[in-house]
Amino acid sequence: MARAIELSERTSLVESAGGAFGAVIVRDGKIIGEGANRVVAENDPTWHGEMAAIRNACKAEGSFKLRDATLYTSAEPCPMCMAASYWAGIKAVFYAATIGDALEYGNFDDSMIYGEIKKPLTERSIPIKQILRAEAVEVWKKYKEKTDRVQY
Ligand SMILES: [Zn+2]
Asked: How far is the CA of 135 from the centre of ligand 1 (A)?
């Protein structure tokens, strides 16, 4: 966690690359990936510390799963990073600062997203509508039958 906080300090205060968010992925007591928020520097709204750490750890491990790995993040993960942790198969998450701290000191507010996720599709602020389902399902049917597809 000390390394995650160090990364958060560097990216926000030294490099001015993004918010004060740093993260590391650990397995068997060894850091296998680390990352920091670089949303501003990269003009990438998804470049969160946890996303970068997961991406780097997966690349280093040559796998899209990080089984038995632990995420240490300098601040409580946002919904995107928490979802990525599930996708990556992270076994545990430790965080330092809270969502409330990120709001108070950095004006980072995830509450709108948590609220949106709970709403039915028709009530969300970004309109979401279904089109061309039959065409998309044709691909899914072929994918189901594909004998060499990678199992998740
Ligand atoms: Zn995030």
From this structure: 33
| Ligand 1 centroid from CA 125, angstroms | 20
**Nearest-angstrom CA–CA distance, 70 and 139:** 35
CA of 133 to the centre of ligand 1 (A): 30
Beta bridge partners of 95: 73
CA 30 to chain centre: 20
Q: Which residues are found with C-beta within 5 Å of the ion, ligand 1?
A: 48, 78, 80-81
Please give the positions annotated as active site: 50
- Closest to 75 (Cα-Cα) out of 93, 54, 58, 56: 93
> What's the distance, Cα to Cα, between the start and end of the chain in Å?
29
Does the reported pTM lie above 0.85?
yes
8 Cα: distance to centroid of ligand 1 (angstroms): 13
CA-wise closest residue to 37 among 16, 18, 60 = 18
Indicate the DSSP class of residue 67.
Answer: T
7-28 residue pLDDT tens: 999 999 999 999 999 999 999 9
